[in-house]
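Running co-folding for NAP.
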Amino acid sequence: MRAIAISAFGADPELVQVPEPVPLPGELLVRMRAAGYNPVDTKIASGAMKDRMSPRFPLIMGQDGAGVVVAVGAEVSRFRPGDEVYGRFTDPARGLGSYAEYGVVAEDGPVAYMPEGMLPEQAAAVPTATGTARDLVEAARLDAGHTVLIVGATGGVGQAAIQLAALRGAHVIATAGSVDEDLVRDLGAAETVDHTSDRMSGQAGGQGAEGRAGVLVADQVRRVRPEGLDAVLDLVDLAGSTGPMEELLRPGGVICSTVHALDPHALAARGLRGVNVINQVTGQMLAELAGLIEAGRLRVRVVDRVPLEGVPEALPGWVAGHAKGKAVIEIGA
Ligand SMILES: NC(=O)c1ccc[n+]([C@@H]2O[C@H](COP(=O)([O-])OP(=O)(O)OC[C@H]3O[C@@H](n4cnc5c(N)ncnc54)[C@H](OP(=O)(O)O)[C@@H]3O)[C@@H](O)[C@H]2O)c1
């Protein structure tokens, strides 16, 4: 089968021919129709997470995908060939990922029926980003009446977090440049703060730009919410740069990071809660998200589509960021 794989950590991703995977007992073999890009895919390929995994090379990139079950391993009872499913198709120890014509997933793992009415390329954009957003709003214990700032609101996780926070009745303040204000308001943000104005005046760029954006955002939020926030979902600021966001919280408030930027013990000593969220996407969660999608309460915005062979050329642009939604790989009919 065709796949996008790396021959070693740090090697360039290439289109390769590799054997089709064979489903183990309890697994589904899925003909992938689409795969979804997430920043973690390139972090893994670069070797940034190599201490946490022992992959087999060539390692097929990617986690998220959607497709059709074509075979099942022994003891599979919930799914059958012909079922349309979406989820996370990755097993680095076997060199397997989702940027391929076929992928495998355990039936009791992160897989669910594809949301009705959704195209495979939309469903493939959901699992990691929307699942992480779901974990964030849970970890923050967001509830009706809470005021939450989402930093990184225009990206894949951020767009889902806006919607899920608003569904819980929270008052959402979202970071967005002026061109993206309508986008985040349409998803449920009540207010916006512009993290890009120093970029436009040519002051930012390079090292330290994130830190300056944080101060810029914090100043704007403090002006409209001097009493403090209940929660901050920070998808951007790295360790050592979260201070301006922490200072926005009211006593007892919570900050959640997707990039392991927080020191929960130090925050607890100041009467604040800090959670470094690592997503735990499950089949049950994906089934619940599918329900919200089918009810028209949750959307995913796909902004870039490339065929499998176009991935090596497209990846540098995706890594550079400035995402305004999800990038997906169209694999087949
Ligand atoms: N821990 C986990 O389980 C987990 C799961 C998923 C993702 N993540 C991580 O979470 C981060 C976000 O993921 P993602 O998929 O949402 O990424 P993404 O789709 O690339 O979006 C990142 C967004 O952040 C915005 N941004 C960049 N700098 C900013 C700043 N200083 N202030 C406000 N917004 C800023 C970008 O827009 P502009 O550049 O236009 O500002 C972009 O819209 C990534 O680092 C990813 O690896 C972690």
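Result summary
The longest helix spans residues 209-224.
Residues 41 and 168 are 30 Å apart (CA to CA).
Job closed.
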